[in-house]
Amino acid sequence: MRKRIVQLIFTVAGGALGASYFPLVWLMFQVRYGTLLNNTITNAILGAIIFYLLSLIFGNAVLKLVDRIEKELTSQSPVQLLFASLGLILGLVVASLISIVFFRSHTIFINTMIPILIMVALGYFGFRIGSTQSDRFRKMFSRKNKEFNKNEEDGEESIIDKPLDANYHHYKILDTNILIDGRIYDIVKTGFIEGTLLVPKFVLYELQYIADSSDSVKRVRGRRGLDILNKLQNEDLIPIEISDRDFEDISEVDTKLIQLAKEVNGVIVTNDYNLNKVIQFQNVDVFNINALSTALRQKILPGQKLNVLVVKNGTERQQGVAYLDDGTMVVVEDGKYYLNKHIDVVVTSAIQTDAGKMIFADPEHSTKKINHDEKHDS
Description:
This protein has helices spanning 2-28, 40-74, 78-103, 108-132, 134-141, 176-181, 183-190, 201-211, 216-234, 253-264, 273-281, 289-295, 364-377; strands spanning 148-150, 157-159, 171-174, 196-200, 240-243, 267-270, 286-288, 305-313, 320-323, 329-332, 342-353, 356-363. With 378 residues, the protein is α/β, with parallel strands linked by helices. The protein folds into 3 domains: 1-72, no CATH class; 166-295, 5'-nuclease (Rossmann fold); 305-377, CATH 2.40.50. It has a 5-stranded parallel sheet. Strands 8-9-10-12-11 form a 5-stranded mixed beta barrel. The chain has a two-stranded antiparallel sheet with strand order 1-2. Helix 1 packs across helix 2 (40-74). The protein is elongated, with a radius of gyration of 35 Å. Residues 143-164 and 370-378 have low confidence and may be disordered.
């Protein structure tokens, strides 16, 4: 049905163009207007036939182009479409004003083709500017410098537009790694994150690409990220928005995240060390859950007593290895004799390595024995 409509449009357009411009073609062959070959009906029929044949050749390509445009438009937010339409109208109005000068010319190329090119160019630029800068236009037209707005229905005050605290960011933008990691779900459940989680569509596309990978490890990681996002949405723990904002002139996802954070005054939530450094260099706030995890680890000091389970032998002498709840390794001297047993130990020292923190400890009864021997000798 759609193909028939395209063919009909081509045929009608061809008939109109044939009736208008075929007389000029016949003049080139010195055929006067009003003859059997050169008249309105004949020219319209010839134009309709030619464009009908063209529709048979290019009809499928036109339909694919229409589908692509339709898909692109439906993926845009209503605000973007509104400003894009206004930009298109403004571009066409400016093009019409400029084209008045060319309409007065008697040359076909100048009075027809140049105005068409100007309208296409300015209309396109107006549409693109309106769609890509819709957020800025919306902020420009919105009311500013007001912290509260009187609610006419219930008389309550609500916070709008400008945050009360310069350090507050309403949008928490999630990157791909943070969804794959999964700990964001546990943090959200605790209630320590407020505001709205913002998930850009380009992050969803990257997750989907990873989930469809031929590599089984990547495929599992991608599906885990999608599962975490579905859990956050289904359990309604915190408001979640999907952002349609994209930056076609930027290819890297990390750079898109930074640009989006600047536009919406958001903070990026990540666990990527390198991205964390780049974000800070760009003067954008970042919430790194690895830094949060490190800050929440238990502070272990020499002389502190711990109760640990020795799970395996150490690499040197008679050492045994245990782990705290947060995964910190505890090397117990003479721990080899307490394998798979809980034992009270006393911390002797702690060092920081690239792999994390490592604690050295002695069994508590051995320190008591040493203290007892020292007192006995004295």
